[in-house]
Amino acid sequence: MKSLHDLYRIGKGPSSSHTIGPGRAAKIFLRRHPASRYRVVLYGSLSLTGRGHLTDKVLAETLPDAEIVFSEEFIDKHPNTLDFFALDGLGGIKARMRAYSVGGGSIRIENEEDAEPLKVFPHTSFKDVAAYCRREGLDLPDYVRRFEPDDIDDFLGEILDAMEESIREGIAAEGVLPGELELQRKAGALYSARHPDETEEIRVSRIVSAYAFAVSEMNASGGTIVTAPTCGASGVVPAVLRFMREKHNLERQVLIDALAVGGIIGNIIKHNASISGAEAGCQAEIGSACSMAAAMHAFLQGYDTDTIEYAAEVALEHHLGLTCDPVLGYVQIPCIERNAVAALRAMDASNIAFFSTAFQKISFDLVVETMHETGRDLPKGYRETSTGGLAKKYRLK
Ligand code: SF4
Q: What range defines the domain where residue 83 resides?
């Protein structure tokens, strides 16, 4: 499996596969093939939701005056495919590159082994990670530190700071999100809207939701967030981390360790299944984020590795089949609210695991495999094309 540097990326929203990935591919093409004119052809999900997800804007920032073509064609190899062309003065093709945006901001380039050779972990399943940890007497953060370069704690510290900053900015921001939905930002209101009759249970839901809304609204407005594991699902992990930090007055190193634990979960999903909504629906994005956050919550509660695994399993299992149907192609409805629901659900999954790990029947590895297969079975309309589900039913008034 690859380094956590490949999973957690600080970048601009609203979509890791539609903005961060294509932006990175465009930079590679520009570096390799300087030219006065460019054409970029978007296929599949990139084409159908590229406008709402700001793909054309990101490409134009890197390749000024590029002609962006939204093709109706789907490329079998990957739903997020894009072709880059460098043109000569007469419009003739000087160079071409096909790239696949495979989720979380990662890219693959056609006929190239791997554009980002960052493999550091020798194990690819939770079963093998846990067996190694048992043999060596390690906990999960120690496992990460054993295989990652020495700077991993510094890197995770930067990730933590960026998450905190996106919460701070999201709560402070006011007004309406960009786009035709004219969606009101809610994070600030949620954060400060204490009702006189509010119970402790409702307060917890409100505060956790406010943090998730804050990051997701930053993402929807093209602000800076951390892919955890994607932009669309970027609010779940920070919301749970921040809530736990405040509730238990946790030290920075403990939160860094929690990010390492969540990173292992996200990495296993990314390696064996998918974290891309275009490939496997929202179960791959929000489901994965919820699974990472549940594992982190369990770790922060002091649970053992078996319970951490079960928390991650419960969280992912109950997102199986979740479709991706962003209304009008914006990462807003259902995405923003869904981050808040998943953050709360992550804490529930961890609590359920605490009581029932001894009765576990389904392993985390098995649910990851199931999620992958379920994703492949989902019709195209439910995989980030905005042609099914809420995206099909909802009409602007
Ligand atoms: S519905 Fe889920 S997968 Fe689809 S864009 Fe929204 S958050 Fe991402």
A: 12-109
C-beta 340 within 6 A of ligand 1:
no
The domain tally of the chain equals 2
Ligand 1 pocket, 334 CB below 6 A? yes
Which CATH number do you get for residue 22? 3.30.1330.90
Tell me the residue type at 119. Answer: K
First CA to last CA distance, the chain: 47
Report whether residue 342 contacts ligand 1, using a CB cutoff of 6 Å. Answer: no
Are 169 and 25 in a shared domain? Answer: no
Contact assessment for residue 396 and residue 332, using Cβ atoms and an 8 Å cutoff = no
Q: Give the Cα separation of 198 and 204 in Å (integer).
A: 10
Query: Does a structural domain hold residue 3?
Result: no
Last residue in a domain, options 46, 79, 109: 109
Q: To 10 degrees, what angle do helices 140-147 and 152-172 make?
A: 120
**Shared-domain flag, residues 283 and 361:** yes
3-state SS, residue 368 = helix
The CA distance from 109 to 97, in Å, is 7
* pLDDT tens for each residue of the chain, 397 residues long: 999 999 999 999 999 999 999 999 999 999 999 999 999 999 999 999 999 899 999 999 999 889 999 998 999 999 999 999 999 988 899 999 999 999 989 999 999 876 555 789 999 999 999 999 999 999 999 999 999 999 999 999 999 999 999 999 999 999 999 999 999 999 999 999 888 899 999 999 999 999 999 999 999 999 999 999 999 999 999 999 999 999 999 999 999 999 999 999 999 999 999 999 999 999 999 999 999 999 999 999 999 999 999 999 999 999 999 999 999 999 999 999 999 999 999 999 999 999 999 999 999 999 999 999 999 999 999 999 999 999 999 988 7
Atom of ligand 1 nearest to the CA of 282: 3
**CB 290 less than 6 A from any atom of ligand 1:** no
Atom 3 (ligand 1) nearest CA: 282
Q: Is the CB of 277 under 6 A from ligand 1?
A: yes
In-domain check, residue 120: no
